[in-house]
């Protein structure tokens, strides 16, 4: 979240590029790039999901507080994806329930990236 916040507060437009796999927090950083400047290589993959943590330990109150914090973080993440993709928050939250993998083309359709880079033709 610190990287995302920094991207939103620097003056220059932030370009994001995915090669290989942008999963979890990396996909959040990817979607946070300047709209029209979020790209992926053709064979890149993107995966979104809700935040996870190790098992909770401690008193019942401590476990409840940890759960509340995770729920709040999940809602913040869903809001960020919704803001940058144009999708409704409830659709994003449904997709965050499980690991949702996308090809580069599917990530364009979802709104996480703006375009897929094409191979250069060799002469």
TrEMBL record:
Gene3D superfamilies: 2-enoyl-CoA Hydratase, Chain A, domain 1. One of its GO terms (biological process) is protein quality control for misfolded or incompletely synthesized proteins. InterPro entries: ClpP, ClpP/crotonase-like_dom_sf, ClpP/TepA, ClpP_Ser_AS. It comes from the Eukaryota. The chain crosses the membrane at residues 17-35. It catalyses: Hydrolysis of proteins to small peptides in the presence of ATP and magnesium. alpha-casein is the usual test substrate. In the absence of ATP, only oligopeptides shorter than five residues are hydrolyzed (such as succinyl-Leu-Tyr-|-NHMec, and Leu-Tyr-Leu-|-Tyr-Trp, in which cleavage of the -Tyr-|-Leu- and -Tyr-|-Trp bonds also occurs). The active site is at 24. GO terms for cellular component: endopeptidase Clp complex; plastid. The keyword Transferase does not apply. One of its GO terms (molecular function) is serine-type endopeptidase activity. CDD domains: S14_ClpP_2 (cd07017). Keywords: Hydrolase, Membrane, Plastid, Protease, Serine protease, Transmembrane, Transmembrane helix. Belongs to the peptidase S14 family. Component of the chloroplastic Clp protease core complex. This is ATP-dependent Clp protease proteolytic subunit.
């Amino acid at each position: 979240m610190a990287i995302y916040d920094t991207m939103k507060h620097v003056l220059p437009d932030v370009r994001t590029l995915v090669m290989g796999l942008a999963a979890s927090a990396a996909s959040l950083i990817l979607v946070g790039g300047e709209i029209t400047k979020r790209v992926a290589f053709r064979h890149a993959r993107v995966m979104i999901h809700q935040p996870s943590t190790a098992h909770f330990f401690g008193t019942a109150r401590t476990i409840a507080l940890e759960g509340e914090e995770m729920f709040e973080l999940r809602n913040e993440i869903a809001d960020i994806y919704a803001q940058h993709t144009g999708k409704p928050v409830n659709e994003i939250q449904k997709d965050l329930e499980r690991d949702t993998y996308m090809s580069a083309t599917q990530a364009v359709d979802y709104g996480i990236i703006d375009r897929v880079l094409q191979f250069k033709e060799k002469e």
